[in-house]
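Task 17 of the worksheet. Students: predict the tertiary structure of the chain below and write it out as structure tokens. Keep your answer in the requested format; marks are given for formatting as well as content.
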Amino acid sequence: MGTLVQDVKYGLRMLAKNPAFTAVAVLTLALGIGINSTIFSLVRGMLLAPPPVLDPEHLVVVSGGRLADGWLLGPVSKADFADWREQNHVFEAMAASAPGADMDLAFQGAPEMVTGVPVTANYFDVLGVQPAVGRSFVSGEDEEGRGQEAILSDALWRGRFAADPRIVGSLIRINGVSFTVVGVMPARFKFWLTPAQLWIPLTGPASRRTRSLRAFARLKHGISIDQASAEIATISERLAREYPDTNKGWRAIALTLSKFRAQQSVDAGRALTILMVAVGLVLLIACANVAGLLLARGASRRQEFAIRSALGAGRGRLIRQLILESLLMGILGGAFGLLLARWGTRLLHSLMNFNQVMGAIPLEVDVNVLAFTLAISILSVVVCGLVPALQASRTDPETALKAGPRTVGSSALSRLRRVMVGAEIAFAVVLLAGAGILIRGVVAEFTADLGFNSHGIWSIGVTLPAAQYQSPTKQASFLRLLAERVAALPGMRSVAVVNGMPVAGANEVPFSIGSEPPSKDDKAPHASYYDISQNYLRTLEIPLLRGRAFTDSDSANSAAVVIINQELARRYFSGQDPVGRYINFGEGTFVTLGGALTPTSGLASRRQIIGVVGNVKDWLGQSGFEPQVYVPLQQIPLTEAIVVFRWGGGGAPSVAAIGRTIWSAGSEEVVVGGLQSMGETIDKLGGGGPKLMGKLLGTFAVFALLLAAVGVYGVISYVVAQRTHEIGVRVALGARRTDVLLLVLRETAVVGSCGLAIGLGASFPLPGLFRSLLSDIPSNQLPLLVAVAVVIATVVLLASYLPARRATKVDPMVALRYE
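Model answer:
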């Protein structure tokens, strides 16, 4: 023990003796370790972290879908949920939540928009979490005619109500209806599957057609997940036989929460794998840098090791001494890396707030991140310190004591340093190429032709209160008046109403051409379905290619009409003019603003085509175009709609003015959503993930490039120092400065060329890998790879220029006496 303490003290003295070396090594390790710990916290938050519920292993998700689609992770209907809850024998209890929706919250002041989630009364009991203040919902509060209670999130309680505990028992108004606040959830409760700012009881009729609920259950003691899944599948098959109109082809399964998250996050898993590989490369570059520094330092200490060996120190003692010094650097690097990780997780969390689901992912430096940081710190020490320690410990005392400092190096050490520098360059090439490929894909996605003019487009959602607007006539009348009044506001160029925005995902409906209706076996072609007001095409500047647009005459009492896009006409009309022809529709489903799967209603099975318009992207990153159909809003009114307008005023439009105008067309019980530009829509609904990946990979590539440059500079500086005597002889014999410069740069050229070739070869498969994340990855990456090669070569040459230039200024007399 005493010997170990002495070795530690000696190691600290040696590190303090060369502070520049220690600082560079520690900071290099800290950068690699900090980046890895930050991304580990992201991976753990998305895929590994347990949810903020008690006993998560016994909590399961019951989901469903069409067997023909092969996707069984979708929402379920309220009626099916009620049957499962009544008929199963494997669950202690079942609960459900509806999708989050924008809700107007009013309390002693102006209303504000919040995200609310309707849940069954036993929702928090099944999850195993209780409010920190007040109580949870009680049995019966989710029955029809009741449900006037609300529970707040901790963030809403602190932000809107100043953490006042007296809010429990007070009345607030949600969408114009009074609710009593009964509780406040703890701050740790941020459930990524259903993020919310408040919860209200889930009431309303039990429809079997509308699939919108997320169902949860707790397994009975002794029941396995396989048994539960088998029983719920049996019940769903029985319901499919009993209700063929709504349930034919639908099946349900039960999954543990962790397995559901993993299957739902397949794409996220690929992205996180790419990120972990990228940060692993950064750490390897950092380790190679430190290993190169240790090799150079070990060579300069060979006389020291020779003396210690001559005095009786064995090889094992020398290796332990060097490993201890590396371990001390690793501990210091890990400590600084942990500080970088704390800062990095906060920065990453701010970058991830492009939607509520990503914003709810827990990112924190907890015990698991601490353990990971410790593990990679030790691993880094082993990777970067073991080989230099072994090399330095092989000192022959007699040879080392006879030799001068300039002869202590060996060709083996020189080759090892070159290999490490070449590896750094290769890793930097892969990272830089990967970042460039992904960024090119993001740029291509964001600059691709969307089919409409997105400049100046803004949107705001509205939801009509069911009690006031039950009839389609009232719905159509309100939406028409709403559009007219919003259009009269200053700065408005054009206003329209639609059921869903382009590039944000589209609803689909089956169709057929001719006299026969579409088949019901899921083999019928599908078209994206847009329910639009007459100004929609003009507002978004979608070109009309044939026929006419909708007019006031296309009302509920007139003939059923439809407009199709150019792609549908190309695929199904073989170059003929489709105007005047008929298209038949089957029953499809669409997603409401709240996320519910609802069947199409009022869509006549047979409609006449009156026009053909240009193609529009249904979602961001879509490769090519898909068939689309547009129906007139006056024939199929909406209870949930999006007001879309082209803004011509300066700055951003006033959400307060638009809200007052919408309420003036109906009442203050109309729910008005958040106002956002098309650019914000693209960021939040389409491009947040790829953009974040591009930013992260780009940042890692810059760090890798800097680390590689430092590594090259350090090795070339060491080579120049070792060859000072040789250079002096050459200058004394008449060598020109240019000859000396080329002599030193030749060392860099060989190493850099090998690293560059290996890195470029490893980069060729990257486009195919990234296409699983982004469909707009260009196939021809040769110009990018050439640019990467030029950048890396330039950085390497610049990093070696200063040592080479210093070599040209060697005084021959000084160099000849150099020892």
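Marker's comment: The longest helix spans residues 678-722. Residues 405-409, 593-597 have pLDDT under 50 and may be disordered.
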